[in-house]
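Reopening this ticket.

The earlier resolution said the output was attached, but the attachment link was broken on my side. Pasting everything inline this time so it's all in one place.
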Amino acid sequence: KQWYQRRVRGEKQDKIDARVALRKKLKDTLAPQNDKDTLSLLFRLPNGSRVSRKFCSSATVKEIYDFALTCDESPNFFTLVSNFPKRVLPIDGEAHLKTCEELGIQSSTTLFVQEIISDDEDSSESEAEM
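Inline output:
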């Protein structure tokens, strides 16, 4: 059982390390803020901090997620949720190619960065409590 837990922790750490490397790469390659045809989006991070950035209305959902990942206080695994109307910004399948305009995201939209906690973490925490 201990071997399995060490293996699972190692796999989790590998995922986290890959995410940290991706975060650094994205910071280096983010497109500059655009003043033409822009939307101003506010990101509310889990720790309560806020980050604002301008995007072109043709920016894709992937670009928005990429920016959110570069925020220093952003969790490694998260989803973006708008408050009004309340919805999760889709990232799976072809949805990440949709633009802000196609999704009806307007300027001054607030996006909440919500951490995703895997079932593995929940089960390993409950096992640790036993």
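Reporter confirms the inline version is readable. The helical segments are 2-29, 61-70, 100-103, 119-129. The first helix runs from residue 2 to 29.
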